[in-house]
């Protein structure tokens, strides 16, 4: 088997699709399924010496997809072959459709996230020149919701480590899985209509793994959704960051701060310094974040006009805002994106496929081997016993025969007294 072929979420959905088709079968179909699985094992798996449960199931799946390419594939589409430029028919299985759906969903989320970030910044940067832009609005609209979501996610992971509550109830797994499942079903509606009743039931059962798969596969089907969410978050922050830099570079934009609470500039300076810790060692006060004098000079007081504020103080905020978006918006999403990728790979590697349907499939493939091996052992033991019995027989010489005959004759002619 090609070692480059590995398990993916799409292949697992295909596996569930085929297993679901084999569930409701009559006696005749059961015998046919046993013969089919046994033939796949003898022709594709046994000759290659594969004994791993994971590899056996993967080879069985590839054999099933290959042998049923025309009559079990759920979707046929015209694809253009890039090598010869010709259009050819390509049959796709449900797992292939799911993986392509996730790819398209990522592209859509990249566009949607980027446009959401740009639109939000356009709303914030509606600068008329009469009043500086309040940086408090920027934090409230852009960064505060993201920081809250990160804190909630971190708390969920922390609590789940102690198993105090059900893990999948902490995450937006049921809700997000339900949304993705409904979108996927809406996209696949045209495909479902063309399926027979049996295949439609198997299709729905396989799709249900996306939302209910945590019972068998753990977080395996949560990670693709988690990754898509991080793609949206990264695109959103890129949109915010580029919009901010575009506004600063090409327009005269002034920033300031104000609050109805009686907050002193010293408190604001401490908050800003703490927020700038990730980059403060490289970009010091006055460069990477405003210093106390710039904070005092950029305070917006309603009774005073903008003309009382200096330009150097008003423009000191944009590096701080941009770096906050980078370090508290984009980088956490990027780290979680990489972590989601790694956790997905790890979850795929840790799947044992030990639930009932897979165990029955393995039994159908290899049970006959156990019977054959048992018969061979019995025959070998019988042959060994026979051989040992023959070896234990002592050869009889001619003298032994003569002596035994003379003794017998004497016993027969001995007179009675």
What is the 3D shape?
elongated
Widest sheet: strand ordering: 1-2
Uncertain residue ranges: 70-83, 86-90, 370-382, 411-417
Structural class: mainly alpha
Rg over alpha carbons: 37 Å
**What order do the SSEs take from the amino end to the carboxyl end, as H and E?**
HHHEEHEHHHHHHHEHHHHHHH
Mean pLDDT: 77
Note the main sheet.
Answer: 2 strands, antiparallel
Proportion of helical residues = 55-70%
Number of strands: 4
Distance between the termini: 91 Å
Number of helices: 18
- Fraction in beta strands: under 5%
List the helices and strands and how they pair.
Elements: H1 9-21, H2 27-45, H3 53-67, E1 75-80, E2 87-92, H4 94-124, E3 133-134, H5 135-161, H6 167-170, H7 173-187, H8 189-193, H9 197-212, H10 214-217, H11 223-250, E4 255-256, H12 265-275, H13 277-280, H14 292-297, H15 311-314, H16 318-350, H17 356-392, H18 398-413
Parallel strand pairs: 3-4
Antiparallel strand pairs: 1-2
Write structural notes for this entry.
By secondary structure, this protein is mainly alpha-helical. It has 18 helices and 4 strands. It has helices at residues 9-21, 27-45, 53-67, 94-124, 135-161, 167-170, 173-187, 189-193, 197-212, 214-217, 223-250, 265-275, 277-280, 292-297, 311-314, 318-350, 356-392, 398-413; strands at residues 75-80, 87-92, 133-134, 255-256. The strands form 2 sheets. A two-stranded antiparallel ribbon has the order 1-2. A two-stranded parallel sheet has the order 3-4. Helix 1 packs across helix 4, helix 2 packs across helix 3 (53-67) and helix 11 (223-250) packs antiparallel against helix 16 (318-350). It starts with 8 loop residues before the first helix and ends with a helix. Mean pLDDT is 77; it is low at 70-83, 86-90, 370-382 and 411-417.
């Amino acid at each position: 088997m090609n070692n480059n072929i590995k398990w993916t979420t799409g292949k697992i959905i295909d596996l569930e699709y085929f297993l679901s088709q084999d569930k409701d079968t009559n006696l005749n179909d059961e015998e046919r399924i046993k013969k089919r699985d046994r033939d796949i094992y003898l022709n594709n798996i046994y000759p290659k010496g594969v004994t791993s449960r994971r590899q056996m199931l993967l080879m069985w799946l590839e054999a099933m997809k290959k042998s049923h390419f025309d009559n079990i594939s759920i979707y046929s589409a015209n694809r253009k072959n890039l090598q010869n430029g010709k259009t050819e028919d390509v049959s796709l299985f449900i797992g292939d459709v799911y993986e392509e759906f996730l790819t398209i969903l990522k592209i859509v989320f990249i566009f949607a996230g980027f446009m959401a970030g740009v639109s939000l910044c356009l709303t914030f940067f509606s600068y008329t020149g009469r009043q500086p832009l309040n940086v408090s609005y920027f934090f409230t609209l852009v960064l505060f919701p993201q920081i809250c979501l990160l804190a909630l996610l971190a708390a969920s992971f922390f609590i789940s480590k102690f198993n105090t509550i059900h893990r999948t109830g902490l995450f937006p797994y049921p809700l997000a899985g339900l949304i993705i499942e409904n979108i996927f079903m809406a996209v696949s509606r045209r495909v479902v209509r063309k399926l027979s009743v049996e295949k439609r039931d198997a299709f729905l059962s396989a799709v249900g793994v996306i939302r209910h798969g945590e019972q068998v596969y753990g977080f395996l089907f949560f990670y693709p959704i988690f990754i898509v969410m991080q793609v949206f978050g990264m695109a959103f922050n890129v949109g915010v960051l580029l919009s901010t830099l575009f506004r600063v570079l090409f327009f005269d934009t002034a920033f300031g701060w104000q609050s109805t609470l009686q907050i002193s500039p010293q408190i604001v300076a401490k908050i800003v310094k703490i927020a700038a810790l990730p980059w403060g060692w490289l970009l010091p006060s006055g460069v990477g974040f405003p210093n106390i004098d710039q904070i005092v000079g950029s305070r917006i007081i309603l009774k005073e006009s903008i003309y009382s504020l200096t330009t150097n103080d008003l423009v000191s905020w944009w590096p701080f805002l941009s770096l906050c978006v980078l370090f508290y918006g984009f980088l956490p999403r990027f780290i979680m994106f990489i972590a989601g990728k790694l956790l997905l790979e790890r979850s795929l590697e840790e799947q044992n496929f030990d639930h009932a349907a897979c165990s029955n499939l393995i039994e159908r493939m290899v049970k006959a081997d156990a019977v054959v091996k048992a018969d061979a052992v019995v025959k070998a033991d019988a042959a060994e016993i026979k051989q040992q019995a023959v070896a234990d027989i002592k050869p009889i010489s001619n003298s032994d025969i003569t002596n035994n005959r003379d003794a017998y004759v004497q016993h027969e002619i001995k007179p009675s007294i």
